[in-house]
Design brief:
By secondary structure, the protein is mainly α. It has a domain of 126 residues: Up-down Bundle (Methane Monooxygenase Hydroxylase, Chain G, domain 1), CATH 1.20.58. It is built from five helices and no strands. Helix 1 runs antiparallel to helix 2 and helix 2 packs antiparallel against helix 3. The longest helix is centred in the C-terminal third of the chain and has 58 residues. The chain is elongated. It is found in: Golgi apparatus membrane. GO terms for molecular function: SNAP receptor activity.
Amino acid sequence: DLRKQARQLENELDLKLVSFSKLCTSYSSTRDGRRDRYSSDTTPLLNGSNQDRMFETMAVEIEQLLGKLTGINDKMAEYTNSAGVPSLNAALMHTLQRHRDILQDYTHEFHKTKANFLAIRERENLLGSVRKDIESYKSGSGVNNRRTELFLKEHEHLRNSDRLIEETISIAMATKENMTSQRGMLKSIQSKMNTLANRFPAVNSLIQRINLRKRRDSLILGGVIGICTILLLLYAFH
């Protein structure tokens, strides 16, 4: 009795899945035909509410049949595992495994077909919304289009101004960083020079003496030149 019920459900599922697959195929073909007609501006793209309702109804029916077949398989498994089963237990297990494989194949086929249908419908809905937006934009008045273009140009100008300001700020920050690093280098050099001067006071005093002698020599040379100039002037006037 359980096998007879399982076979009946399997036959119903087989017919339902064939019809379900044909529905999905016709849905895709209908969408392609409507897309071609839309390209010639004769009919809109999306008008498949009837097919959507049929899809939902058939999907519910197939899920119910799969649930019933799963219950029948579970009952057959309980029967094969119960006590008092005759020695044909191996044959019964083989039969049960066969029905489980059929259930698994039907379940896989149903989910695959359903996923394909949902993917096609989602893609077509997206394309339809995009085409509607494009059509609404094209059907807008010339004034609105002109205003939109002006707004877009103004937006582009603002973006260019922002980009130039950002570039100027980045250049100023880089210059500030360079000047800060140079000031740090000069301070480090000055501190090193002061450190050397403090470490070698004799050298510092020697440098100071050399500078004083240079100044003295310069004064003497200037005095000699001045005296010679005065004498030459006196000689020239006398």
